[in-house]
């Protein structure tokens, strides 16, 4: 078992069982529960002529689900297909190649790992391999991205530039919907987008393990590109619901930073990924993060004497450090914030 654990998941020989270190406790497992795709999952057409209508739609979806899919978003379908193809090619390379392609950056901003970055200390592993690297400014980071597959930098470079534009568009709609300045999220607050390419190999028993445990993203928003394979689930009204992939659509979700800035008017959405027994699934999350030294705090326009700030101001770097040290469980981090806010009120 140990030798298997040491290799990257996607490079394992076909195993007929889930190793114990990947088996989640019964209350956290997906079990045999069939999660049906949700027919009313919001789909927002970004080319709708009526901008007010788009904003209302996005706000309703963000309040009720914390999630929506976007279509007619302006990113060419061919570029989306090429990008997924390159990501799949990357994950299909040998373990040695993947590791060496991600070891050029002295700051280790480009990384490749199985399960999570806390593999050595986490209690249970998840069934995925991940490649991650920053995206902006492109010139600063692209030289540390994988040079193999040979088209990686060209295709992914074009892709992340498109995603930055799409991200700005969605953030502008959200800021208008919240009633803050349309330029609020521009600049440093959305200045550090990071790409995370997940690969969930097919799993001998998907009922025992998870691709990603229940979590909220520490981002403003996250824009997900995925293959047309089920796996993403959203926790809503005490139940897990499946997100049915739509061809050439992106899945957008709200993150914790948006929760803080909106002073709780929108919440970071809870979600997870499950595996399946027949095919591997690749997805790529584009997390819109603030730059490290940027102060995140409830927008002044959204707080007043009756609606005081729920969270204290904190540099993004500090927030992320607290968040990560708690295994991506932000509840205690937020409780800290809330406690602090209460103390300030007293
Ligand atoms: C993530 C995430 C979902 C998926 O990477 O944070 O939630 O379906 N991914 O891969
Ligand atoms: Ni996520």
Automatic annotation (TrEMBL):
Which molecular function GO terms apply here? dioxygenase activity; L-ascorbic acid binding; metal ion binding
Does Metal-binding show up as a keyword for this record? yes
One Pfam family in the UniProt entry: 2OG-FeII_Oxy
UniProt name for this protein: Hyoscyamine 6-dioxygenase
The family assignment reads:
Belongs to the iron/ascorbate-dependent oxidoreductase family.
Q: Which domain of life is it from?
A: Eukaryota
Species per Swiss-Prot/TrEMBL record: Morella rubra
What keywords tag this UniProt record? Dioxygenase, Iron, Metal-binding, Oxidoreductase, Vitamin C
Q: Where is the Fe2OG dioxygenase domain?
A: 190-290
């Amino acid at each position: 078992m140990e030798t298997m654990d040491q290799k990257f998941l996607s490079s394992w020989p076909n195993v007929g069982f889930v190793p114990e270190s990947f088996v989640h406790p019964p209350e956290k497992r997906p079990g045999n529960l069939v999660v049906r795709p949700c027919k009313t999952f919001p789909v927002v057409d970004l080319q709708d002529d009526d901008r007010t209508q788009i904003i209302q739609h996005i706000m309703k979806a963000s309040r009720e689900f914390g999630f929506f899919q976007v279509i007619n978003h302006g990113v060419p379908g061919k570029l989306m297909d090429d990008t997924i193809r390159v990501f799949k090619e990357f994950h299909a390379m040998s373990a040695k190649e993947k590791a060496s392609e991600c070891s050029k950056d002295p700051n280790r901003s480009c990384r490749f790992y199985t399960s999570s970055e806390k593999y050595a200390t986490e209690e249970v592993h998840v069934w995925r391999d991940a490649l991650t690297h920053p995206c902006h400014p492109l010139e600063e980071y692209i030289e540390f991205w994988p040079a193999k597959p040979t088209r990686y930098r060209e295709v992914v470079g074009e892709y992340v530039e498109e995603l930055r534009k799409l991200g700005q568009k969605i953030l502008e709609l959200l800021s208008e919907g919240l009633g803050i300045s349309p330029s609020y999220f521009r600049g440093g607050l959305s200045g550090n987008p990071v790409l995370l390419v997940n690969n969930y190999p097919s799993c001998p028993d998907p009922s025992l393990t998870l691709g990603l445990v229940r979590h909220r993203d520490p981002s403003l928003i996250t824009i997900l590109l995925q293959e047309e394979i089920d796996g993403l689930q959203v926790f809503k009204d005490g139940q897990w619901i499946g997100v049915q992939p739509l061809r050439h659509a992106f899945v957008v979700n709200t993150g914790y930073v948006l929760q803080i800035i909106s002073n709780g008017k929108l919440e970071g959405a809870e979600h997870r990924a499950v595996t399946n027994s027949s095919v591997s699934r690749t997805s790529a999350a584009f997390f819109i993060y603030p730059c490290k030294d940027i102060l995140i705090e409830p927008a002044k326009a959204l707080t007043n004497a009756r609606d005081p700030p729920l969270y204290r101001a904190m540099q993004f770097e500090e927030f992320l450090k607290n968040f990560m040290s708690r295994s991506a469980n932000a509840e205690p981090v937020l409780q800290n914030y809330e406690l602090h806010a209460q103390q300030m009120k007293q």
